[in-house]
Amino acid sequence: MKKKRFICVQYNDIMIYDMDLKKSLATKILIPMIFISLLVGFLIYGTLFFSFPDSSDDFIEVNIKTNVDLRKYKTSGSGKINDPYILNQFTFHENKSIGLRITGVSKYIEIRDVHFKAFGFGLYLYKIEYPGLVTVRNCSFLNCDMDVYETDQIRIINNTFVNNEVGIHFTYSRNNYIADNHFDSGGLCVGLVESQIEKIETFTLSDNYINDKEILFLKNENHLSLKGNFSQIFLFNCLNVTVENAFAYTASHSVLVSDSENCSLSKITAYTLAHAVLILNSPNTQILSCYFENVVNKSNKIYFHDDYGISVLYSTNFSLSNSSINNYSHTGVQIQYSTNASFEYNIFVSSGFSGLTIRSSDHCNIVYNQFMENNFVGVWLVNSEEIYVYHNNFLNNSWVNNGSEGWNSNGQNYWYSSILEEGNFWSSLGNETIYIIDETEGIYDLYPFTTPINIFG
Length: 457
Known about the structure:
It contains four helices and 44 strands. It is mostly beta strands and 457 residues long. The radius of gyration is 24 Å and the shape is elongated. The two termini are 41 Å apart. Residues 1-54 and 298-303 have low confidence and may be disordered.
């Protein structure tokens, strides 16, 4: 397998990586955007998404920091492995950011038959170091989620989650056992950091469901074809696995493929609450005839403000075809460090930044796609070479570089076919005979269409 790399896909990486943009553009537009995004990232992610590492009692209904605190709330048990402290007969209300927070304890605990309500996390387990310390059983989470931060070998069994945005969020936690849990939204969530994904591979899952659809969790499977109504799909170290005909509604994420090869995802419909798909270290992955849409109001989201429809990292020969990517608050599809990707007959609609971003990835083809109403550009090419962009429709993508609906930063790429002498349709072409991508860098579509291309027949 390829050597592991650390990568974190966040909103701010766009601004940090692309300092090669023109000074005037950076001064007028990007610097204020960086400042605002950093400020928002600090306020939102620092307090909610990154798990309240220094949480104040003012935000927590019950904050257990020591074994002495723990004994105040236990109803029975001695704290030993065969006789854990039992915490039950509690109802946590919706007037705090966190219902129950536990850290710094060294006793075995079972949290049983507890009803959680909170603004953010109902239950928050933070850096509990002893393995096998905590069991969460027969609990209910209403309008709130569960967060597990650097806490290993816990057992999460037979709980219900109602109206959640995340479900269970794991950060740097390993060897957890998760069985017989039922979600109506959310499911299992892990951040887009490779070291976190490596840890979720150590989990054991059995009979977990979102809206009565199974969470599919496969490790080390070869030559397998599955058809089923799966709510989430996790593939780790798989070879020649095909999954099709899945339907996921209100899962936090729909698909994670890691360290796998020659896997195919087809006819999957997913209405996600955060990122839809992550492909990591997985060559020859195919996605075809799929529909991904973010269904959370971007202005009301608590946890994820910068979603990607599909993120592909360190994965050669990725292909996306006959699919639709809709309404993601950052980017519809982002490719990084992944050569020879192809995109054909897809629709990219209403992303907060770009419909498609290709970063540090060479030799890609973008042909017969439709980029509509993306907030910044339809296609953004960054530090990439030999990208061919032609026979696409660019329709009302908002603004960049004096009105261009595409952007080319650092790389010799081709926004037309020199053989066919045909380029793309641009809704902002006006009466011009060529389309300017970046006049300073000499990047043009020399053969733009004057009417939209009939892409789908």
